[in-house]
Amino acid sequence: MKKNYKAIIEAILFTIGESVELSKISKAIDLSEEETQNIIEEMKKDLESEDRGITIVKLENSYQMCTKTQMYDYLIKIAKQPKKRVLSDILLETLSIIAYKQPVTRAEIEKIRGVSCEHAISKLIEYNLVSELGRLDAPGRPLLFGTTEEFLRVFGVKSLNELPILNQVQIEEFKQEAEKEMQIQLDI
């Protein structure tokens, strides 16, 4: 008897509601990761070609069933409008440091920013954009922070490798801007 792998995978992704690692899906259906990935990719194509309201997205080495973005307007008419989280410049700056330097400690972030960032990190954890990854094996055993899958979803990237790379000229320009701002603040 041939199993209906697509139906099984669909049930797994729908029921879990969050992303599920490819390795876990393949173990559940007793197929190799390559075979499982091929089935999922075929499912993604089926969902796109049939003009369905859902899709499957890949996040790092995991998959998640989601509503297509073009359906949001209809969902909002029925459901409560989701609370929009506004990321201030401080939160964005802290988040970008974590994204590019992870795993990173609070002290390392504060050294780069030059100010305390405890509140910013707490807010980013509350928004599920950042999480604690463990502790650094150093005196005081400081917490290490990194980005979450929610970060990937919110910023529309499939992996951290898709983050833009800054060239050395841009970095120097940013440093000069920051130095000018610091000088203006010192003059006031």
Overview of this structure, please?
This is Segregation and condensation protein B. It comes from Lachnobacterium bovis DSM 14045. Pfam families: SMC_ScpB (PF04079). One of its GO terms (biological process) is cell division. The chain has 188 residues and is of the alpha+beta class. It folds into 2 domains: 5-78, Winged helix-like DNA-binding domain superfamily/Winged helix DNA-binding domain (Arc Repressor Mutant, subunit A); 89-187, Winged helix-like DNA-binding domain superfamily/Winged helix DNA-binding domain (Arc Repressor Mutant, subunit A), CATH 1.10.10.10. The protein has helices at residues 5-16, 22-29, 33-49, 72-78, 89-101, 106-113, 118-126, 149-154, 168-187, and strands at 20-21, 54-59, 62-67, 104-105, 130-135, 143-147. A 3-stranded antiparallel beta sheet has the order 1-3-2. Strands 4-6-5 form a 3-stranded antiparallel beta sheet. β2 (54-59) and β3 form a beta hairpin. The longest helix is centred in the C-terminal third of the chain and has 20 residues, at 168-187. The model has no long low-confidence stretch (mean pLDDT 85).
Which descriptors would you attach to this protein?
single chain, 188 residues, alpha+beta, Arc Repressor Mutant, subunit A, three-stranded antiparallel sheet, 53% helix
